[in-house]
Amino acid sequence: MSKALAGLRILDMTHVQAGPSASQLLAWMGADVIKLEPPQGDITRGQLRDIPDVDSLYFGTLNCNKRSITVNMKTEEGKALFADLLTKCDVLMENFGPGVLDRFGFTWERVHAINPMLIMAAIKGFGSTGPYADFKAYENVAQAMGGAMATTGFSDSPPCVSGAQVGDSGTGLHFVIGILAALHHRVQHGEGQYVEVAMMDSVLNLIRMKMRDHERLQSGPLPEYSVPTEGLFSVPRSGNDSGGGQLGNVLKCAGNEEYLYVVVQEAIWPALAKLVGGEHLLQDQRFVNIDKRRQNQPAMWAILNGFAAQYSKSELMAVLNAIDVPCGPVLSTAELAENEHLHAREMYIEVDHAKRGKYWTVGMPIKLSASPAVITPAPLLGQHTDEVLQQVLGYDATRIASLRAVKAI
Prior knowledge:
Elements: E1 9-12, H1 18-28, E2 32-37, H2 57-60, E3 67-70, H3 76-88, E4 91-94, H4 100-103, H5 108-114, E5 119-124, H6 139-146, H7 169-189, E6 194-198, H8 199-206, H9 208-217, E7 247-252, E8 259-264, H10 269-283, H11 290-295, H12 297-308, H13 313-321, E9 327-329, H14 333-337, H15 340-344, E10 348-353, E11 357-362, H16 385-391, H17 397-405
Parallel strand pairs: 1-2, 1-4, 2-3, 4-5, 5-6
Antiparallel strand pairs: 7-8, 8-9, 10-11
């Protein structure tokens, strides 16, 4: 079966999470992703290892479907090899700290001169311009400076990082979009370009609804918030509020760690009220419309929590779905790993690694009808060095041996 990005060759110098999450998506869509690693390999190969002398799951989760080559960019021979690869690739991806590739002698201007059709794509913590351009960033630094932490958690508690990796993998998604847009531009205009995605920018984009609320604060309080907003100059942390036009929150169900998230739409309130409290609740003037329910949120949630306490989260989900209430149980990682829906959609899959053996990993979230992803395990360090130098660059065995002799590969 055809692959959506078949024929596209990507030279991937990214490491850790933000870049590899992006190049993995491109590899799943059929691009030939050549992961160029230093002789010691991507640092995540050795981080958080659960099995001695085996590449970590940190690495294995982010580098499926790629080919790995090792190149020592500190040697002149390694730099020459790198320049040759640039002539044979469509995209160069990197997420080094500020100025690293420049110091190797490969500025955007030089890369563009080597291959004018190449897309050079870079992830930076804060971009290449602005007062923060030289600062380094990690996942939680991006969450802190992009506004996610200040708006996550409860108003009476410290800011919290999100369990979702919005700083790294969120940036990776923006990265993929930028690369695909640049490739489309190349088809139309016949030239490559430089693509830059900053982690801080990406997080800000993902909290745009909070920035919407920041702008609204200038005109008065935010009635949908369950915490007071009168007189505030910044959007507060509001726990599990829905953050949208409809009210939403978590209900505590029977049992330990049993929670269900519920959205109380205006259209379903009559049916929900009758289910929970009969005609009495339906006619209760505190909840007669959404404006009243916003004003009386604590009382409404107390009543709904009392009702939820009779059921497990799966039972309550069934009860509420029967009357078309949007809801979903809070699922743990253990529950996700066994979830029949995710397994049916191939979103949690088993792969067989050369050294680790079989392990489970998250699957491809983008489903393409004509070109579905077939996921293969992450490569061993340098597993494809000879193969790539022979197939892509046409180097013979003698030349490869000479590169190895001078520790360029």
